Amino acid sequence: MNPGAANATSRVPPDLVTLGILRGAYGLQGWIHVQPYSGEAEVLRATRRWWLLRPEADGSSGDPTAALQVTELRTQGAGLVAKWRGCEDPEAAQALKGWRIAVSRSDFPRLPQGQFYWVDLIGALVVNRSGLQLGVVRALRNNGAHDLLEVERESASAATRPLLIPMVEAYVDGVDLAARRIRVDWDAQW
Question: Which residues of 135-163 are buried (b: 16+ CB within 10 A; e: fewer)?
Answer without folding.
Answer: bbbeebeeeeeebbbbbbbbeeeeeeebb
